[in-house]
Amino acid sequence: MLDQESLKQRIHRKEVIKVASASMSVSKSQLEDILSKDDYDLVGVDSQHSPCNEEKLVAFCAMAEELSIPVQLRIKHTRHAYLIGNYLDLGPLAIVVPQVEEETTVLEAIDAFYYPPIGKRSWGGSARYGLKERSDRLEYAEWWNNNGILILQLESVNAITNAQKLAKPGVDMLVFGAMDLSFSLESYPDYPLRTVEDCIRHVQQQMEGTQVKVGLAHSPSGQL
After folding, report:
1. Cα 212 vs. chain centroid, distance in angstroms?
2. How many Å apart are CA 222 and CA 224, to the nearest integer?
3. Three-class SS of residue 204?
């Protein structure tokens, strides 16, 4: 298993993180082939725009763990932030929340992502990442709180403007949905930032002096 504390620390140091993209339906040999293309840190699967079967997600996460690669899951909808704890019980290490605009969404995501005393995540789930090595409740909860990766996806003018308010303690990374952000920019012709690249630079400036990394990818794959 990879040292996930190191991965979270690398994110906080704002290093480049490489994420492969895969379907939950791939075979082990297909996943091995995907991972052989580069030195990946995570493998991303998407439920926002793709079918998501919980049993398949458990099996995929177990297969990925056998290959020493943790899973990043983009959840199906912004309003499903309250279900993040349930998603994590199925095996991912990293969660991407799409189309985030409101501080209330971020607070709900943090509560569902982290165990007490940081959040309010419920205890349970035999498929959780890293549980085999840490069966003690308090030991695992502390390990998770120091290693789990929470990512918000910014896809609107409102999100870009308020990125600093959204990047609350517990959020590790901000990424962008370029296509939806483009729709939003086109709806606000007088907004001073005119391109996705302008928005990325603006958010990077807002995140200076923080541990929150700004990822350049707009999907579950690529460099973050």
Report:
1. 12
2. 6
3. helix
Summarised one tens digit per residue, pLDDT across range 90-120 is 999 999 999 999 999 999 999 999 999 999 9
Give the chain's mean pLDDT: 93
What percent of the chain is predicted at pLDDT more than 70?
A: 94
Where exactly are the structural domains of the chain? 4-218
Give the orientation angle of helix 137-147 with respect to helix 4-12, to 10 degrees. 30
Q: Starting from the edge strand earliest in sequence, which strands make up the sheet with 42-46, in order? A: 213-214, 173-176, 149-154, 94-97, 71-74, 42-46, 18-21, 222-223
**CATH 1.10.10.1100 at 4-218, yes or no:** no
Quick: pLDDT tens for 4-51: 448 999 999 999 999 999 999 999 999 999 999 999 999 999 999 998
Closest by Cα among 152, 88, 96 to 120:
88
